Amino acid sequence: MVRYPLLIAGVAAERLAELRVARRNAAWSRARGGVEAGRRHYPLLVATHTGLLAGCLVETRAAHRPFVPALGWPMAAVVLGAQGLRWWCIRSLGPRWNTRVIVVPGLPLVARGPYRWLRHPNYVAVVAEGVALPLVHGAWVTAAAFTLVNAAALAVRVRAEDAALAEAKAARPASDGRRPPSADA
Questions:
Q1: Which stretches of the chain score pLDDT less than 50?
Q2: Helix %, strand %, coil % for the chain, to 5?
Q3: Which of 3, 97, 102, 181 is 20 to 30 Å apart from 123, CA to CA?
Q4: 39-54 pLDDT tens trace
């Protein structure tokens, strides 16, 4: 599929758009007393996602992976669905969404959009995309490698995020009855 590099470029452009939104949202959160947690794992996440995009291109070219329509088209649909879920998460969290773990003390937990049903829906999008994007063009080694590295990175990320949310909740007076904000990125 000659268009595969264009798909990868489109996903890369989407990532850059996310980073612009994240930078703006980080400033919003910090202006309201937001505290960042888990800084040490952030470079691993960036490297993992960059490696996914590079691996997709390198493996398909170096290993001469063919486009198999019976696999490629359904996986392309999953990639598009993952993008839709990701942007639904971004809209649902509004200025609290970020690629970093930044918790603004005192804000209630977001319970709209996909957060009505899932605690970390953005990570569902990440996992789905990480498997599907390489498989659009048969890059199964990249899909497997990303899945393994991403599972380890997300285990660290979710622990950091949950700890930050628990800390924010513990710091809040017990009488207000609100839950801490979601920091899912």
A1: 175-181
A2: 70, 5, 25
A3: 3
A4: 999 999 999 999 999 9
